[in-house]
Amino acid sequence: MFLGWASYFNDKRYDLPYLSWKEVRTRRGYDLEYATSYQDF
User: Fold this and answer.
1) Per-residue burial over 10-35, b = 16 or more CB atoms within 10 Å of its CB, e = otherwise
2) Tens-binned pLDDT, residue by residue, of the chain (41 aa)
3) What is the value of pTM for the model shown?
């Protein structure tokens, strides 16, 4: 059992900005012509 669960609500490092699905897809490379189903590194 993880006892520090309250840090997810109180810590600033877990306060991430909202990203729309369109922006997420472009960052992951899904909308590219040459995109494959694998992540490029």
Assistant:
1) eeeeeeeeeeeeeeeeeeeeeeeeee
2) 456 778 778 888 888 889 999 898 888 877 766 656 666 55
3) 0.42
Query: For residues 17 and 27, is the Cβ–Cβ distance under 8 A?
Result: no
Tokens standing for 14?
Answer: 């877990």
Alpha-carbon distance of 17 to 30, in angstroms, equals 21
**Three-state secondary structure of 1-40:** CCCCCCHHHHCHHHCCCCCCHHHHHHHHCCCCCCCCCCCC
